[in-house]
Amino acid sequence: MFVIDQSEREYRFGDSGPKYLMKGPRSNFALVRFNPGQDFPAHYHNIMEENFYILEGKVDVYVDDQVHHLHPGQLIHIEPKQVHYVNNPYDKPVVMISTLAPYQEVDKVDVPDFKIQCFPL
């Protein structure tokens, strides 16, 4: 058992990205923030499933060949091996919770040019 305050952790990119409150041993739990115009490269996980629950703002989550426009109160569940790309094209930050399970130290596979291949500009 443990208790942690989110102020004890930092976002990966300073004022944005994931802020892991827990990494393992069975799952990850993170507070995620993306500022307007920020994104996170397309990738998938071989073993872990991932969930995003939107707390504030709006975000576009591309999964395989579909885009999902999400807003506060919505959750998206992403299965292992489903390619996903997260983008905030909106004018306000998005804040969401991310969970990943079962925990794996290394399980992220980058997918270069995913957005260009599936969603031509």
From TrEMBL:
Residues covered by the Cupin type-2 domain = 31-98
Q: Which SUPFAM superfamilies match?
A: RmlC-like cupins
Taken from the record, one Pfam family name reads Cupin_2
The entry's protein name is Cupin domain-containing protein
Which species? Paenibacillus albiflavus
